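Example 3.2
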Amino acid sequence: MSTSLIIYAALIVGSIGLIAAVILFFVSKAFRVIEDPRIDEVAEKLPGANCGGCGFAGCRALAEAIVKANSLNGLECPAGGSSVREQIATLLGLEATVTEPKIAVIRCNGNRENAPAKVLYDSAHTCNFAQIVFAGENACPFGCLGCGDCVSVCQFDAIQMDPLTKLPVVDENNCVGCGACVKICPRNIIEIRNKGKLNRRIFVSCMNKEKGVVAKKNCSVACIGCEKCVKICPFNAITIENHLAYIDYKKCKLCRKCVAECPTGAIRDINFPPKRAESDSVS
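Structure, written as tokens:
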């Protein structure tokens, strides 16, 4: 091959490369996206957990949504809480509304004492797989399966399996209410609720939708849908659907009348002082 051919080939290749570079330069200018610098600033305020509790794919996606909306209404970071919300509001010149801290509650009390095991599960140790193949060791088709999928997805070390009860236990100091455990649970026994005044909460710790006799056959503390709690609640905070009671924490005033009235003990009151005995109340 002669020298002139090599030079021509090099010039042609170089010319093509130069033309392509020029085209790419103008294309990048025409289609460039100018990103609001405040997105990076907001993202830096977020904890970076990317837990998905905000409803977005990650912290940066939430930051983009906040800056685009120029509002914090309906856009909050459960992991960051009120302090992060206030920092972002100050940064963007917005008003930071007060939000109630959230926590996960376990709506199942089917431990080994209340719901003795009837079978032994010896297969893949995940709740999602166990949900497919059987009703549960205690035969309750709505109760906790005890494999700990909720533990594996929690990024805050806020939930652990109790080796004795075989039920998950939420650490109030670590839980941020992100909802990752809610999404992974195939039985929907975990709910995000307000922490409540003085961290006190009242809720129905049961998800069984079977009729009372059938429900109690597998678990002694199952809700039987008797409606006694509904009748005694002075705030209309309790409803019954599909034989199962539900307490609306937005209406509940924590009077605890339903707790005493429940014949099976399906309603739990958390972080309340022990009630005084009747003999102690009489002077």
